[in-house]
């Protein structure tokens, strides 16, 4: 018989991270373990308040399925039993990990994927003054891809300051729904001059219809607007790319389906993360194979990652070892 364990873990950040909606100083994650005989599968999620999630709520949602999770619930029946979101992500990834260990095969092989290769990830800088962001960028100017959190007014000055401090780095910009419709076109024109390669979620998800037919020389990526494959066709008329996060899709299973559906619609793919440990990043490395943009820097933002975490060589993240996940 299976044994389910659920626990809350708190991981301090190396430095508080500020976005348009506020700041955080720690990553509050939920870890799920499903043990069956000699094998234990693990998964991790980061409940996100913006989506109405809490640590307590996620734990309760998983606890409500204890009888089934300790019974014969499998990866496919889970997709019906739970809705997309952080809770399902932790369970889905734990089941993938358990299944891989029981089969003696890596998760990528079970999913009929190619063997994963190292990926180059973005490194995130939080919102701050132009001078402070430039100083932070100067310290990481050696990184090939830098992601800037922005918030609206004053963003052009922030981004220009970072560009001057890190002239060789590719820059992506994440507004976290912090812009207004009248900012998108003029900001995009200015950001193109600064060689920004992507703008992430400039408008609130419930107001992104304004992007239809709006000129924007810099590709725009949906984040808060894109959770699972539902509604993806409508997004294809508004965005150039979608950001796939396992905490939004509800796990690896739906993330792989969403990636395939996005490709069929001609949408570019970004694979991102919430701020969490390597256990949460590991399955996302599989989804990130072949993506245009990778943002799996969560462990790099922590004061300390979990033991046996992913190996980062600068900005290059290596595929997970079986002892961590999959």
What can you tell me about this protein's structure?
- The longest helix is centred in the first third of the chain and has 18 residues, at 86-103.
- The strands form three sheets. The protein has an eight-stranded parallel beta sheet. Strands 1-2-3 form a three-stranded antiparallel beta sheet. A three-stranded antiparallel beta sheet has the order 4-14-13, with no helix packed on it.
- The two termini are 21 Å apart.
- 33% of the residues lie in helices and 23% in strands.
- It has two domains: 3-104, 2-Layer Sandwich (Enolase-like, domain 1), CATH 3.30.390.10; 119-317, Enolase-like C-terminal domain (TIM Barrel, Alpha-Beta Barrel).
- A hairpin with a 2-residue loop joins strand 2 and strand 3.
- The chain is built from twelve helices and 14 strands.
- The chain has helices spanning 55-63, 66-69, 75-81, 86-103, 107-110, 130-139, 155-165, 181-193, 232-235, 246-249, 252-264, 278-287; strands at residues 3-19, 22-36, 39-45, 119-120, 123-125, 145-149, 170-174, 196-200, 220-222, 241-244, 268-271, 293-294, 312-313, 316-317.
- By secondary structure, it is α/β, with parallel strands linked by helices.
